[in-house]
Amino acid sequence: MTNVLITFPIKEKFRQELTGKFPQVHFDFSDSIEGAGDKKVTVLVTYGSDLTEEILEQLTDLKWVMVASAGVDKLPLEKLGERAILVTNVSGIHKTPMAESVLAHILSLNRALPLIHEQQKQKVWEKMKSSELRGSKALILGPGAIGGEIGRLLQAFGVYTIGCSRSGSVHDGMDEDISFEHITERLPEADYIISVLPSTPETRWILDRSHFQRMKKTAVFMNFGRGDLVKEEVIVEALQQGLIAHSVLDVFEQEPLPVESPLWDLENCTVSPHVSALSAKYVERALEIFKENLQVWLAENGEFKNVIETKRGY
Amino acid sequence: MTNVLITFPIKEKFRQELTGKFPQVHFDFSDSIEGAGDKKVTVLVTYGSDLTEEILEQLTDLKWVMVASAGVDKLPLEKLGERAILVTNVSGIHKTPMAESVLAHILSLNRALPLIHEQQKQKVWEKMKSSELRGSKALILGPGAIGGEIGRLLQAFGVYTIGCSRSGSVHDGMDEDISFEHITERLPEADYIISVLPSTPETRWILDRSHFQRMKKTAVFMNFGRGDLVKEEVIVEALQQGLIAHSVLDVFEQEPLPVESPLWDLENCTVSPHVSALSAKYVERALEIFKENLQVWLAENGEFKNVIETKRGY
């Protein structure tokens, strides 16, 4: 018997779709992981952060964890690996909202939208300085599915894109590809430095003060990957000292961002509460991937989508 | 002798470029049209609004008006036509900043940027609803150079574009083309109604209350063309009654928008002070077109760029 526990709320419409399509499966729409230990759960569908090592130990029948997010760094990956539990995510569904968010922030800054909104509040009719995106250059850290979609859209706006990955191999949406070792020498030419890197041991704290010193004073630094790419104090200092012009952050060392953080008050920092991947279509898309994988699971035939290698962490 | 009067300020660098490149021409960098009557001006380079009928009568040697904007509706076109004075504009240079502005506003609304900024001011970490641009539909009134660039970019985001023009003929950047007569029947399916129509007798007040009643309640109406497309009271009513979700206006019946206008206070209206075409590169690009045309003028050979038919008004 396949016992599926879904630990986040989903609409009645989607519940009916699942139960109708898979009558041989028992679905538990608990909206929570509480009491999961008593339920003989074989398949866990979760946003990820609720699956602690402690709960994992109780789930002795668990065979598959489907994470409805892209990052899996909060999962007890080592324990899951030891027990050879299948881990899948939904990384493909983030690329559209995330790329749209990145472009929204870049264009909004270029076209002075925050100032337009401010002036409207005060009923001030005054022309302001604005610039163009066309002809600029972007360095994209993590040119995978999400980074590639960002690159593709930037190219449509006439931006030259440089993808930066471990291997430096060729990626879609990039005019050029370099490896991490060559970041430093290319930073001085980038107008936008955009990270969508996941959190892995290799990408942790890879940017430091020396990197920001190499950036253009007019550069915009954007972190939409994970908060452990660079220390918050390094970003704060870079913004306060004018090493760069602006920063747009959707991820932070500590989330929610503590009220004490100086980032909140910096005029040249946009604090986005980790929402760039969200979308009204999110759950629908996540469930589509789940349904495809569930079919493979039940048929014991075919290939799973979005399998995570627990050792690599992505 | 070719006497050129430039009535707006341009940088020293550009002045030197002009005088160096055209030693046979006399340039008057007055930053103003005042006293032009005494200067035997043959070529007038202006943003347009300073050339009144009165001044035009004084400029008896005038042969060419180069307007450094796209709209020529404020020019005394009839008088210019009678005297067979050449009129050229710089319409090509607006498409990049304008299309970037339109996309900036659309993406900003979709990705909830105004709310993100508001929450930051109050140090509030809270997820908000946001949607995706992909899969939506746009109706573009005026699918010329600017509309086509908007269409091309929207298509890159997976938006279906319908161009709406007098003729309904095929235009770049459009998935479909219709004529003005068919607007009404296609309004109910559009998520975005974007006008970049110039002001001509044919396009004046072509939208009225009946059109807004046909729009989706979730639709966004954007006017980036001219303020005489639709009466302000019609937009105000549509926004107040929720006939549409939002409006982004860069042009108005009266500019500057009077402080009394209810548009300033409407939460579902973005008031942009006619800045969508501006860009740090504006003057540079305008002068490039001027220099090309000046070469044609002096050589008395070749074809002028961006010639305005004074009778049609574009």
From TrEMBL, chains A, B:
Which residue ranges does the record assign to the D-isomer specific 2-hydroxyacid dehydrogenase catalytic domain? Answer: 39-300
Domain D-isomer specific 2-hydroxyacid dehydrogenase NAD-binding, chain residue ranges per copy: 103-276
Matching InterPro entries? D-isomer_2_OHA_DH_cat_dom, D-isomer_DH_NAD-bd, NAD(P)-bd_dom_sf
- The entry's keywords: NAD, Oxidoreductase
Please give the start and end residues of each transmembrane region: none
Which domain of life, per UniProt?
Bacteria
Asked whether the keyword NAD is assigned, the reply is yes
Q: Which family does it belong to?
A: Belongs to the D-isomer specific 2-hydroxyacid dehydrogenase family.
This chain belongs to which protein, by name?
D-2-hydroxyacid dehydrogenase
Q: Which organism is it from?
A: Sporosarcina gallistercoris
